[in-house]
Every structure is written in structure tokens, then in C-alpha cells.
Amino acid sequence: MPIKIPKLLPARDILEKENIFLMDDERAITQDIRPLNIVILNLMPLKEKTETQLLRLLGNTPLQVNVTLLYTSSYEAKHVSQYHLEQFYSTFDHIKERRFDGMIITGAPIEHIPYEKVHYWPELTEIMEWSKTHVTSVFNICWGAQAALYYHFGIDKKPLKEKLSGVYTHTLTDPTVKLVQGFDEEFVAPHSRHTTILESDILANSELQLLSSSDEAGVFIVMSKDQKQIMVTGHLEYDAFTLQDEYLRDQAGGFNPKLPQHYYPNDDPEKKPVHRWRSHAHLIFSNWLNYYVYQQTPYEWE
């Protein structure tokens, strides 16, 4: 089944060329099924790129998905036009009376800032608190995952000596958990961050379950035992060239970044990166939508 997005959303042309099944309002109203309503709180600076990455994954399931895009009104985005926000996005005030089947909270390149000093932290905590009663399950990514662990479970991030950037091997702790059903026992996934979460902090918390970790990248997939909060500290949604774009951006900014690890063939930046995590990206999002959103959400919220 398709994903329903606005006709003029820039991501639409890209996804249609990839044969992702899309639908507009006119066709959606003819479908006699209960669609899933998913809200995406997009905290990334390059919002259009993140939209495309996430919609690609949400559109590859048997379920019809209606997507609402959300941005924080307490912070002025610098890398996206105001027209794009006004045309395609909502603010929390406009949607807080609604209920959603699922929510995605993206990462943000602000790991070096203490949570309480982030401009939109008060607004984000209000949204996270609201999600407890208005959303069936929340999928938190990278900094969003760290923020969720801090707000909901009191687990703070720890600074790394240098940026963690690359594609790392991960292992599963329990392949029978539905979120990772179909995963290989070893698989790769991208990371791009300056902070980490200690595995000992996750294991010491009785409300959390560690599902996957990496010897090099550390904690990767964590789920609350009530299944309402899923935290993924890496970026399975990334395209093949996203780490390269970040590397070149950091180079241009004078940060002297290290080459992303295990990313370029033979560590040669002249060679094209290979997209080695695509299948697991599709798996985790389809498993989340099926088992933790569709199977758990009431048909009628009221």
C-alpha cells in the first residue's frame, strides 16, 4: 500500500522515480481502509533530504500511511526556506489535539550542546511528554534517541574524543524480538555523532532492552519494555552518499575531519561508497510499522 504525501513535496519526484508507491488526497479518500497516521518531527537542518530518506522507508510496506511533517516553532531553521515550512509542515500547537499511531523524532547535529541549553528543548520535552498519551509508538533517531533516553529514562550522553563517523558492524542480542525480525545476526549501519550512550547504563535500567550494539560504535538499538519508545543511535535511513556529504561539509568548514571508517572501498575517497545497509533499514521501519504501530494502535482512538 502507498504513502500519502502532498503533490508538491520535493521528495515526491525522487520517490516516484524509485517506484515508491505514492498517493495523493484524491485517491486516498477512495481507499476503504484505516490508514496509519505518522507524525515526523524533523530536527535535521537539511529537511528535504531527511524527508526523502524517511518517506522512502515508510512507503515500502503493505500499510497505507498518512504523514504529517512537524518542525519546532521555537527555533528558526536556517537551511530550509520559510515557504517550504509553511507549505508542508505543521507546528505542535496545530496538531497537539490530534492522536497519532506513530511518531519519528529525527537526529540533530547538536550533540555537543547540553540538552537544557538547546533552544527548542522546552518545546521538545513538551512534545515527548505529549507523545506518552497521544502516540502509540515513537521511533527516535541518533540525537533524538539520546534525547529520549535522557528525558524518559534519565540516561545522559557521554562525549567522544573524536567524531564517530562511518559504517560499523553490529550484532543482535535477541533475534526473536519483532523489531529486528529478519535481521542478520551481524549487519552494518552508519553512525555520525560526537557523543555516545554507555551500554552499562542501558543494562542497568529495568525499563529498557538492548537489542543491538557494536564493538566500535557502541549501543545501537534500544527499546523500552512497554514498546512505546524505540531508540536507534545511528542512521539506517541514510543514503549511500550522506556520510560523504557530511565529510565534505566538515572539510569545507575547516574541521579537518577523519575519513569515515569502513565506508569507502579500500578507504579510497575517490571510489564510490557502497550502500550496504539498505535491506536492514527497510526491515526495521516495516517491522516497527507492523508490530509496534499497526498491531498495537486502536482502530478508533476515541
TrEMBL record:
Active site (catalytic residues): C142 (acyl-thioester intermediate), H235 (proton acceptor), E237
Pathway(s) where this gene product acts: Amino-acid biosynthesis; L-methionine biosynthesis via de novo pathway; O-acetyl-L-homoserine from L-homoserine: step 1/1
Site (described: Important for substrate specificity): S192
Annotated substrate binding sites: K163, S192, R249
UniProt keyword rRNA-binding present: no
Annotated site location: Important for acyl-CoA specificity: E111
Enzyme Commission number(s) from the entry: 2.3.1.31
Subcellular location, record wording: Cytoplasm
Keyword line: Acyltransferase, Amino-acid biosynthesis, Cytoplasm, Methionine biosynthesis, Transferase
Pfam families for this protein: HTS
Domain of life: Bacteria
Record has Cytoplasm as a keyword: yes
GO molecular function, one term: homoserine O-acetyltransferase activity
Catalytic activity: L-homoserine + acetyl-CoA = O-acetyl-L-homoserine + CoA
Family in the record: Belongs to the MetA family.
Function: Transfers an acetyl group from acetyl-CoA to L-homoserine, forming acetyl-L-homoserine.
Name of the protein this chain belongs to: Homoserine O-acetyltransferase
